[in-house]
Amino acid sequence: MSEAVAIAGPVVFFTGAGMSVSAGLPTYRGAGGLYTNSDLEPPHAGDITIERLPGLWQRFRGRLEAGVELEPTPAHRAIAAFESSLEVAVVTQNVDGLHRRAGSSRVMELHGTLAEVRCLDAGHISPVRGIQWGPDGVPLCPECKAWTRPAVVLFGETLPPDAWRDATRAMSTARTLVAVGTSAEVYPAAGLIASGVCPAETRLWVNPETEPPSGDWTWLQGPADDMLARLVAG
Ligand SMILES: [Zn+2]
């Protein structure tokens, strides 16, 4: 067995698309593989109009229904399991909702989540599971029957302020920072792991291919499932 790596709390796991590869999601640059190469143009803020919303949902529906079937990976479960021994926060760029499904209780989803929809009239948040699709191909709010939109951040939209504030706070007090499966190239999210925002003395970079962005990281080179199995509370 490979050598164990001890981590101290509070620990922040900063996760990107590489986290969910073994769940079946491809790692495209962007928010958790949301914007695939086959899109003619990525969905953006201007798609949230009465005229364009049915078209947006046409493009999202397959991904959304595929996401409902995805199961958390061993890496997601390993992170959730640390909550029994350490103070843990998860800051994720992914929209697949798998950290919550794995049991992590403190998750900041910087790019929102495909696991939920938000209604246009009152802002009600509802789970995708069991959602009712209207005749125009747009899911209807279970509470008020208004049209809904995906609860993800589209290009041209700002990140959710609550998630951003909570993430910044968690970063500022972390003793250990573990970046998993991210190339840390998508801003502003990537700025959260800069040493000025997160001064954690232990900085672990879990990635099979992409090198750490600077010399103050320890590179655990390999797939997330394998590398996270080596971490132990200590
Ligand atoms: Zn509603």
From TrEMBL:
Which of UniProt's keywords are assigned here? NAD, Transferase
Q: Outline the extent of the Deacetylase sirtuin-type domain.
A: 1-234
User: Which molecular-function annotation in GO is an example for this chain?
Assistant: NAD+ binding
InterPro entries assigned to the protein according to its UniProt record, in alphabetical order: DHS-like_NAD/FAD-binding_dom, NAD-dep_sirtuin_deacylases, Sirtuin, Sirtuin_cat_small_dom_sf, Ssirtuin_cat_dom
**Protein name (Swiss-Prot/TrEMBL):** Unannotated protein
Organism of derivation = freshwater metagenome
